[in-house]
Amino acid sequence: MANEAAIGFMDSGVGGLTVVKEAMRQLPNERIIYLGDTKRCPYGPRPNEQVLEFTWQMTSFLLNKKIKMLVIACNTATAVALEEIKKSLDIPVVGVIMPGSRAALKATRNNRIGVIGTEVTINSKAYATVIQKKSPHTKVIQKACPKFVPIVESHKASSSIAKMIVAEALNGLKKQQLDTLILGCTHYPLLKPIIQHVMGKKVTLIDSGAETISEVSMLLDYFDIAASAKKEAVREHEFYMTGSQNLFNNITKEWLNLKEINSRKINLKK
Amino acid sequence: MANEAAIGFMDSGVGGLTVVKEAMRQLPNERIIYLGDTKRCPYGPRPNEQVLEFTWQMTSFLLNKKIKMLVIACNTATAVALEEIKKSLDIPVVGVIMPGSRAALKATRNNRIGVIGTEVTINSKAYATVIQKKSPHTKVIQKACPKFVPIVESHKASSSIAKMIVAEALNGLKKQQLDTLILGCTHYPLLKPIIQHVMGKKVTLIDSGAETISEVSMLLDYFDIAASAKKEAVREHEFYMTGSQNLFNNITKEWLNLKEINSRKINLKK
């Protein structure tokens, strides 16, 4: 039975838009409501309790919009909050860590997988735990890259300073003979060309967000809640942010290739 | 939490083994219990009520084995019984039609998709309905190939008579400018080289069974019921059939590349 309700996406900032971009490509019939907590971004350096609190605030906002499915399009929030939120809600809840891990295990040939992410994601060892549970002989090498999110949030992902910072951060990983590297933060696909250049062509980059949309697609079918096909692509996507609306609109329009977006600044704090 | 119970697979005959083969490759930690109703195969020409009745009998047998998930590895049974069985059981139930349809939509470039299957599957229009619900402008051309299953069940998939029968059956489809063809019967991957030869290299063949295992893999994670990794690959797979045990064992060992299998002939009728 068709379900025309929207899918809710949330992220600490604009990174989750990389997941939305993939959703718009793979699921053209679905309506999207996006919330980026840009004012309090990055979540990466924050204590777990605070990440959990903020993630619940975003969840409540989206639930009020009557969403049919929730995508935690943020690795930090997934690592800390997915399990609790999934257990509490009666709609499907999807995070980005499991799909990325599955894709990396499918891609690797030498069983040496790298993971880059924020400090919270890396300290949680969420990717390493999932991967080694499935495949104990696979080596997982992790590296926190706390400087990457601020680059993306300030709309400087193609600057020369971005190149320097990425090269410096990944220097150690280059010596690890990885054949697969998980972009364990939804902001990082915006730095993908630079990361690929630094790591070399032989390393497969896994975009956890894109993998997540395949899972969303499957679950929409499994629970029989996919939207019906529209004759004309009706775009009623809604975007919400907590920080600068201008900066958000600019990066969103550029990244999603949209001329106009329906966006509104909101306040999450009670 | 790891769940060491087996995944149950069922089919009207040996065709579902093509799905099992993919499960053994993608999910090496999972234990498999397979039931092929070889005595009453093919299901394709039978009335829907009978297919439903037989499918319920197979389901009951597998439920008694305490399976954690059920895969209806048979297009005919999926078309007729998936919805009812899924609603009735409290374990996840997966069919082969939805995953095959999704994969075909992802593969096609010219939006002309062919489907071959048994008479029941083709008459049910199950693939066409799913595909056109998602993408109304996609053309779906169907063709029932009732002679294919008996060829496979009699272990003659690489004979010269098989080549003649396949070429004759697909003759009309070749003129339809398809770029994607769904093997809408789990027996057909055993005829894949011949089908590919007849259709030509430019046509992408979609193996619904293989696609189904990607869905099984996701659902094992989503419901947190994947088996834990084994240090040594423990093979405790069980195979049951209702017809000739010798014929079943031969084709199973050959197709799954196993030296020995743990199999037993059973009686499904009450």
From TrEMBL, chains A, B:
Recorded metabolic or biological pathway in which this protein acts: Cell wall biogenesis; peptidoglycan biosynthesis
Source taxon at top rank: Bacteria
Binding site for substrate: D11, S12, Y43, G44, N75, T76, T186, H187
InterPro entries cross-referenced by the UniProt entry: Asp/Glu/hydantoin_racemase, Asp/Glu_race, Asp/Glu_racemase_AS_1, Asp/Glu_racemase_AS_2, Glu_race
EC number(s) stated in the UniProt entry for this protein: 5.1.1.3
Keywords per UniProt: Cell shape, Cell wall biogenesis/degradation, Isomerase, Peptidoglycan synthesis
Pfam families named in the record: Asp_Glu_race
Keyword Secreted attached: no
Class of the enzyme per the UniProt entry, highest EC level: isomerase
Catalysed reaction, written as an equation: L-glutamate = D-glutamate
GO MF annotations, alphabetized: glutamate racemase activity; identical protein binding
One record GO biological process: cell wall organization
UniProt key word Isomerase: yes
Catalytic-site annotation from UniProt: C74 (proton donor/acceptor), C185 (proton donor/acceptor)
Function of the protein: Provides the (R)-glutamate required for cell wall biosynthesis.
Family of the protein in this entry: Belongs to the aspartate/glutamate racemases family.
The protein, known as: Glutamate racemase
Encoding gene (name): murI
